[in-house]
Design brief:
By secondary structure, the protein is α+β, with helices and mostly antiparallel strands. The chain contains eight helices and 25 strands. The strands form three sheets. Strands 4, 5, 7, 8, 9, 12, 13, 22, 23, 24 and 25 form an eleven-stranded mixed sheet that branches. The protein is globular and about 65 Å long.
């Protein structure tokens, strides 16, 4: 297998770096085409040393990484304590990307995916994704915004031998692997779809001719006590249909956004998205059961296709033990469904991934890219 990964939870940066470098070197050898390293905040101040050591030992063609509050390695999620996760692959050409410099022109190949990690204080994801959609239509963008920084200038991102505090870094994956995106928004639909009949911006006044809150009251009458608790604790979302040409809508057809609040007197609701009149929407609920079931079903569907050789996992910092009540949920589920793959990733303050062919910034989402070597290439 042309991929390898290693995780160290040792508190000393030098020891942890040596441990993960040794693990990847033993599995894969030197000179990978791409190396990715993620560290928790306990090692953030020494990210330059981590990157320099990885480059000195492995000699990757391209290296990128970041510091984040919590990281992923294999089937482990290291939440808030010391950890370094290193991943590497030898599968053909990749091209480094630095934002705001943009995607290089005149690429030597047609990329299969862009993996991108960014600083949430300096990157405008919607503008960035719109620009990428114009320059590289159909290109999946998977990744996330590093979490844990307290303000502008607090993020730590690495690209090759440079460590920066703003923008975004990543790599364009070349034709040596098939890249498939799995984006689990962690919700399940409740009620039935409605058409937005009045509203502007992020305010929805009426759904199918009746006040939006009245429609929500109709749905609430059929909810279980557990679902009502989830709604009352911030788990109410609204899914916006991405492709209105479809006759029926199911999981994966909605871009899910949080319901921010409502005005009982006006009967309107506010959503964390702009929704235009004529759009089809449906209420969704997010809780641990919905998040588990959605990711489990998507992974089961993925394994029914070509089994992957490696994965990159970016999960929301609102998931983890906070949501599921147990450690290692998302990484463990990936391992349960797909086997013991080389996996790295981190807990993000906003996840990047495509839904119905369009890239978006998400929340409370697990965004995954599954990589499968193209045999006989």
């Amino acid at each position: 297998m042309p991929f390898a990964a290693a995780l160290s939870e040792h508190p000393l940066t030098a020891y942890a770096t040596g441990e993960v470098c040794g693990g990847v070197l033993e599995q894969l050898g030197p000179h990978p085409d791409l190396a990715i390293v993620f560290v928790t905040l306990a090692h953030a101040g020494a990210l330059e040393d981590v990157v320099a050591t990885v480059r000195e030992i492995l000699h990757p063609s391209v290296l990128f990484g970041a510091a984040s509050d919590s990281i992923i390695g294999g089937e482990r999620e290291v939440e808030g304590t010391a950890g370094i996760s290193l991943w590497a692959g030898r599968f053909g050409p990749v091209v480094p990307v630095r934002i705001p410099d943009g995607v290089p022109a005149g690429l030597p190949f047609e990329p299969s995916a862009l993996v991108l990690v960014g600083d949430p204080f300096s990157v405008a994801p919607d503008d960035l994704l719109s620009s990428l959609a114009a320059s590289h239509p159909g290109l999946p963008v998977i990744g996330g915004m590093a979490s844990g920084a307290r303000g502008p200038g607090g993020s730590r991102l690495a690209l090759d031998d440079a460590v920066v505090t703003s923008g975004a870094v990543g790599a364009l994956i070349g034709p040596g692997v098939d890249a498939r995106a799995v984006v689990s928004q962690g919700c399940r639909p409740i009620g039935r779809p409605y058409v937005v009949t009045e509203g502007s911006g992020n305010i929805i006044r009426t759904l199918a001719g009746r006040p939006a809150l009245s429609r929500l009251d109709e749905v609430a009458g059929d909810l279980t006590p557990e679902e009502i608790r989830a709604v009352n604790s911030g788990g109410l979302h609204l899914g916006r249909v991405v492709d209105e040409h479809k006759a029926d809508f199911g999981p994966g057809d909605f871009l899910v956004r949080q319901v921010l609040g409502g005005d009982r007197e006006a009967g309107a609701i506010a959503v964390n998205d702009e929704v235009t009149v004529g759009t089809t929407v449906q209420f969704h609920v997010r809780d641990a059961i919905a998040a588990h079931d959605d990711l489990d079903a998507l992974l089961a569907e993925a394994i029914d296709a070509t089994p992957p050789d490696a994965a990159l996992l970016f999960t929301c910092n609102g998931r983890g033990e906070h949501l599921f009540g147990v450690p290692d949920h998302d990484a463990g589920l990936v391992g349960d469904r797909l086997g013991p793959l080389p996996v790295t990733g981190f807990f993000a303050a906003g996840e990047l991934g495509p839904v119905a062919g369009h890239n978006h910034l998400h929340s409370y989402t697990a965004s995954i890219v599954l990589l499968t070597e193209r045999r006989g290439r």
